[in-house]
Design a protein that fits this description.
- Belongs to the group II decarboxylase family. Sphingosine-1-phosphate lyase subfamily.
- Pfam families: Pyridoxal_deC.
- Helix content is 41%, strand content 12%.
- The protein is an alpha/beta fold.
- The strands form three sheets. The chain has a seven-stranded mixed β-sheet with strand order 1-7-6-5-4-2-3, with helices on both faces.
- The longest helix has 37 residues.
- The radius of gyration is 23 Å and the shape is globular.
- Bound molecules: pyridoxal-5'-phosphate (PLP).
- Pyridoxal-5'-phosphate binds next to helix 4.
């Protein structure tokens, strides 16, 4: 950590150059956002000059307010262009046979999903206790939406081999109170595409909306299909699909803060709006959760899409697909590892076999070699796994992964598995979240090297092993406590 005075409100203002130098110094603590060695959180096309363009476009519109499109038509024009591009990519108009898809730009995938659930809920005001049908592989943002909106979830398990829900199970989960059925194209954790056509059909037969969460990979699937990959129907070409979300800050490679929520037609979108005139100020009309909205992310996304163009995305997807192939081959070539799913999109997900090393130790060994992967905890019969979100910037480095992976597996074998005190593991397995006291959390955090200073320990395997031993409810509680230890104001 940086220890000199870094108050955000110093007694005297700090010169611009120094402030920027400070930010650059702080950024030095972060994982590398470029270079194709970070397999989560960031989406890097590795295109020279793109970031500068997006930053300039952002600056141009940062102070424009999306609150009132009549005051700032520039923003409306760019938003409509982004929605049009997403709609066209995903089977919407123009054209007489394509649905007249409409949509909004939101701040991210989670906001798009919350709004998809809100829209479906508010379209059925006669239902007192609305419910949504959600495959267990769907993104956690649906749980957040349900929590915020007081909607119940009917979770559908996924097959442990295909990692997809059975259509019959989805159909059986639909009840008279169901307002929305959800599927993923693809899922985040494993990159698997749900059987959208069949799920949308059972939803439509029941008169229920069907949302396709294409936040993660919706921008690449059409290009993968054009490149010859066997991508099943997942977009508005499927009759029962009523809404789709796609994040521009993922595979459209725009800076953070932009997702698009599309509806098949304006009537389906109508309940998304919130309007309020019953106060003395301006009448508030909001299509999304935020009211004041910066134009920065929208302008940056607009610049990114226009600069890369359709041909640019096709080429970036080609590079990404090649990188996925190389990484998956690397996994196949190392004893002790296996792919959790054959890559169907841009995710490589692997786990260890019985003769393999401790997965969490392996993740640390990869990090020690400069490869930052995302460990996923075991869940509902699914094994712990390593998730790689593969972007175009990985392509030039992909060939280096295999040798490092083999070396990391050997090193993890030499290190041996994490051995936490058995009583600690037993506690993690048995403790109910309610029994967790502040002292217990502080003790655990200190023991694991977490907390004070904001830094994480170099080796995360003990932390992951402890979390893996805990049930989801305890994982949630522990991580909330750990994160709240980190979120302390620096006065
Ligand atoms: C499939 C899917 N849906 C939704 C989200 C949530 O997106 P965000 O983090 O932009 O809120 C993600 C994020 O990874 C995702 O992969």
């Amino acid at each position: 950590m940086i220890d000199e005075d870094r108050s955000a409100l110093p007694a005297q203002g700090v010169p611009a150059e120094r402030v920027l130098a400070e930010i650059r110094e702080l950024r030095g603590m972060d994982r590398p956002t470029h270079g194709g060695r970070l397999f989560a959180y960031v989406y890097d096309p590795g295109v020279a000059g793109l970031e500068e363009l997006a930053a300039a476009a952002y600056a141009e519109s940062a102070h424009v307010n999306g609150l009132d499109p009549t005051a700032f038509p520039s923003l409306l024009a760019m938003e409509n262009a982004l929605v049009g591009a997403a709609a066209r990519l995903l089977g919407g108009g123009p054209g007489t046979n394509a649905p007249a898809v409409v949509g909004s730009v939101t701040s991210g995938g989670t906001e798009s999903l919350i709004l998809a659930v809100k829209t479906a809920r508010d379209a059925r005001p006669e239902i007192d206790e609305p419910r949504i049908v959600v495959p267990a592989s769907a993104h956690a943002a649906f749980a957040k939406a349900a929590h915020y909106l007081r909607v119940e979830i009917d979770s559908v398990p996924v097959d442990l081999d295909t990692l997809r829900p059975a259509v019959a199970d989805v159909a059986a989960a639909i009840r008279p109170e169901t307002v929305l059925v959800v599927c993923s194209a693809p899922s985040y954790a494993h990159g698997v595409i749900d059987p959208v056509e069949q799920i949308a059909e059972v939803a439509a037969a029941a008169g229920v909306r069907c949302h396709v969460d294409a936040c993660f990979g919706g921008w690449t699937l059409p290009y993968l299909r054009r490149l010859g990959a066997p991508v099943p129907a997942f977009d508005f070409a499927v009759p029962g699909v009523t809404s789709i979300s796609v994040d521009l800050h993922k595979y459209a490679y725009a800076p953070k803060g932009v997702s698009v929520l599309l509806h098949r037609d304006p009537a389906l979108r109508a309940p998304q709006y919130f309007a309020y005139a019953d106060w003395p100020g301006y009448t508030m009309v909001n299509p999304v959760i935020s009211s004041t909205r910066s134009g920065g992310p929208i302008a940056a996304a607009y610049a990114t899409l226009r600069h890369l163009g359709d041909d640019g995305y096709l080429e970036l997807t080609r590079q990404t697909r090649e990188a996925v192939r190389v990484l998956a081959d690397a996994v196949r070539g190392v004893d002790g590892l296996r792919l959790v799913a054959e890559p169907a999109s841009t995710v490589v997900c692997f786990t260890t076999t019985d003769s393999g090393p401790d997965l969490f130790v392996l993740v640390d060994e990869l990090a020690a070699r400069g490869w930052h992967t995302q460990p996923q905890l075991g869940y509902a019969g699914l094994p712990r796994s390593v998730h790689l979100t593969v972007t175009a910037a990985v392509a030039p480095r992909a060939a280096e992964f295999g040798p490092d992976l083999a070396e990391a597996v050997t090193a993890a074998g030499v290190t041996g598995p994490v051995t936490l005190p058995p009583e600690l593991l037993a506690l993690a397995g048995a403790l109910s979240p309610e029994a967790l006291t502040a002292d217990l959390v502080a003790g655990l955090a200190a023991g694991l090297g977490l907390g004070a200073g904001g830094g994480l320990p170099e080796r995360m395997a003990p932390v992951n092993t402890l979390l893996d031993a805990a049930a989801p409810a305890l994982r949630e509680r522990l991580l909330v406590e750990f994160v709240s230890l980190l979120q302390r104001p620096s006065y």
